[in-house]
Amino acid sequence: NIKALHDREVYLLRNGFSEKLFGYTEEKYSPFTLVFHGNLSVYQGIDTIIKLADELERTMEDVQIVVVGKGSEAEKLSQKKSNVLRYLGPKQHHEISPIIQKAHVGL
Q1: 35-51 pLDDT, tens per residue?
Q2: Which of 21, 80, 81, 85 could form a disulfide with 53 if both were Cys (CB 3.0 to 4.6 A apart)?
Q3: DSSP label at 53?
Q4: What tens digit of pLDDT does each residue of 29-85 get?
Q5: Cβ distance 43 to 72 under 8 Å?
């Protein structure tokens, strides 16, 4: 019922992060790096990341995609043979931070 929803107070909750844990660094990976971290399921579009890696391998030099996480689609990444795609598996929060900081683009 829209009327019932309209009469309620609505709150916006943003995803936050720790500035101490996830800071900024000038040091970046070489080559140019895109990073994805999180749950690896069909809803995160892992097949799209694999297709992107295939396309980048055909069309660009000096680029890589780094993937960190675990989930139902992890096996696809671990079995993928690619010069562009690097699957690092699951990591602890303190291990993910430097990976994200040194990447150029987050996916």
Answers
A1: 999 999 999 999 999 99
A2: 85
A3: H
A4: 999 999 999 999 999 999 999 999 999 999 998 999 999 999 999 999 999 999 999
A5: no
| Neighbour-count burial of 85, counting CB atoms closer than 10 A to its CB (0-12 exposed, 13-18 middle, 19+ buried) | buried
**CA distance linking residue 44 with residue 90, whole number of Å:** 15
Residue 63, classed as helix, strand or coil, is strand
The model's pTM:
0.82
Contact between residue 36 and residue 69 where contact means Cβ atoms under 8 Å apart:
yes
Residues 29 and 104: their CA atoms lie apart, in Å, by 8
Q: Measured between alpha carbons, how far is 73 from 45 in angstroms, rounded to an integer?
A: 9
